[in-house]
Amino acid sequence: xxxxxxxxxxxxxxxxxxxxxxxxxxxxxxxxxxxxxxxxxxxxxxxxxxxxxxxxxxxxxxxxxxxxxxxxxxxxxxxxxxxxxxxxxxxxxxxxxxxxxxxxxxxxxxxxxxxxxxxxxxxxxxxxxxxxxxxxxxxxxxxxxxxxxxxxxxxxxxxxxxxxxxxxxxxxxxxxxxxxxxxxxxxxxxxxxxxxxxxxxxxxxxxxxxxxxxxxxxxxxxxxxxxxxxxxxxxxxxxxxxxxxxxxxxxxxxxxxxxxxxxxxxxxxxxxxxxxxxxxxxxxxxxxxxxx
Length: 292
Hints:
The chain is mainly alpha-helical and 292 residues long. It is built from 12 helices and no strands. It has helices at 4-11, 39-54, 67-72, 77-93, 97-112, 116-136, 138-142, 148-167, 172-181, 186-216, 224-252, 269-290.
């Protein structure tokens, strides 16, 4: 039925206005977007998010939630790093499993003193490493050494949990400073520092590109592998641009590649106490190995 406006247009000699088909009620078919295959993108975004949560360059990784961690926070980072390295070597070289069980007990006590949010990542990673180690040593168990899988899995769990317990409360910048204080070559420290920094920066760039690709793919069934290839290509271009800017900035600031060790007090009472405890554990290791 023509409206009053249409009658007026006809009386004035003008053609009535016709609405497009997509504006007429019922004139357009219901829109059904295509099923978007975004599972691949979602997994990439989650993986990048977890990576960025672990690698936070120059920031504090975690708070000291337990009494043990608060005491260890007073120890100089170079001493903690060196002590950890010594204990890891002792656990790995232990032929007497008594020392490995002792360090496993120490790691479990330190782990149990933390909140549940801090326990889960360490226990999950250490458990996976121990399980993989046991599976690798399974052929040795079938060839007449049934305890080899248990021995190696115990050592793997103890060493991984001790290492992750340290890096939960020490930032990467403190680690690189400690390595330089321990007289590690400047080139090695520079490569490690730049690698961690670029992982953080390029990870954020890849995360932003993945989010943009996911938003543009709503209702469009695009090839996920082609989108991931585009993200990788753009990330490579960002890496090239970032490397050029870093090189120019270093040249303008006169950076010659040398890292000066931090000037901070290392020989504190807490550090000396820590060194005494580590030396005591090394003596226990030597005694147990000689008692075999």
